[in-house]
Amino acid sequence: MSRTPIAPQTSRTLLMACALFLSCGVANAVVVYQNDFETSDLTGWSVIGTNPGVTADLAGEHVFGLFNDNQTITWSQSLAAGTYAVAFDFFAINSWDEVDSGCCFPDGFAVEINGVTVFDEDDPFSLTLTGSDVLSFVYPGPDRIGEAVSNERYRPAFAVTHGGGAFTLSVIGQTSQPGQTLGDTGFFDEPWAIDNVLIDRLAVPVPLPGSLGLLLAGIAGMAATRRHRGD
User: Fold this and answer.
1) Which of 13, 34, 90, 139 is in the most buried spot, having the most CB atoms within 10 Å?
2) Does the pLDDT of residue 27 top 70, yes or no?
3) CA angle at residue 41 from 88 to 51, to 5 degrees?
4) 225 band by pLDDT with thresholds 50, 70 and 90
5) Domain covering 27-202, topology
6) What is the DSSP secondary structure assignment for residue 181, as one 8-state letter?
7) Among the residues of the chain, which ranges form H helices?
8) What percent of the chain clears pLDDT 70, i.e. is strictly above it?
9) Are 121 and 108 in contact (CB under 8 A)?
10) Which long-range contacts (CB under 8 A, 24 or more apart) does 104-109 make?
């Protein structure tokens, strides 16, 4: 039994219909805010306490910080209702020497989204690291207690449902030695910073429209008819 190839115009129509089908069924993420702090633009950010602005490390990478106190930094913007993915880099810099009690407790950070705590960690060194000494904010001296002069980088990530209106992201740093400097260097002890903030709105997949379903059925019927005639 011979088969007649589908006519070129029918083939093109099928390809167009399939492309339309795929575009309707795939969800896309839309970036609503992104900042690597390589400029001094801090639009949308507020700081409780001293605001050091954007700082460059010795390698030329810029971060928002260095903060050296029990401080809260908040980004706020009006966003439509939907589901949002939030991620950023957090840097624990120099002697976050977390212990359970005594002089150096606690060292940690927390994250709030729309006033709800989504992360609270008072022992950062128990987290999975993405690398050590990733910045050049390294005090030139020997290790004193464990992580005394290491810089640790974390990448917290969250997905939240937002009802619409003001969307707030707050990062709270808590160090046990606010305002203290390392010897006579003038360099703050236990500072912290953030970088590479990314907030995406996650789109909901669009159901296949009924009219498109009918179109595909019609095209399939047309192709079947052509094959039948060629038998």
Assistant:
1) 90
2) no
3) 80
4) low
5) Jelly Rolls (2.60.120)
6) B
7) 8-25, 210-230
8) 50
9) yes
10) 104/145, 104/176, 104/177, 105/176, 106/174, 106/176, 107/174, 107/175, 107/176, 107/190, 108/174, 109/171, 109/172, 109/173, 109/174, 109/192
pLDDT (tens digit per residue) in 201-214? 998 655 555 545 55
- pTM for the model: 0.66
Q: Which pairs count as long-range contacts for 45-49, CB under 8 Å and 24+ apart, including other chains?
A: 45/73, 45/74, 45/75, 46/73, 46/74, 46/76, 47/71, 47/72, 47/73, 47/74, 48/72, 48/73, 48/74
Q: Give the other-Cβ count within 10 Å of 230's Cβ.
A: 11
Write the single-letter amino acid at 94: N
115: left (phi over 0), alpha (psi -120 to 50) or beta: left
Q: Is 154 in contact with 90 (CB distance < 8 Å)?
A: yes
Q: Which of 163, 197, 198 minimizes the C-alpha distance to 30?
A: 198
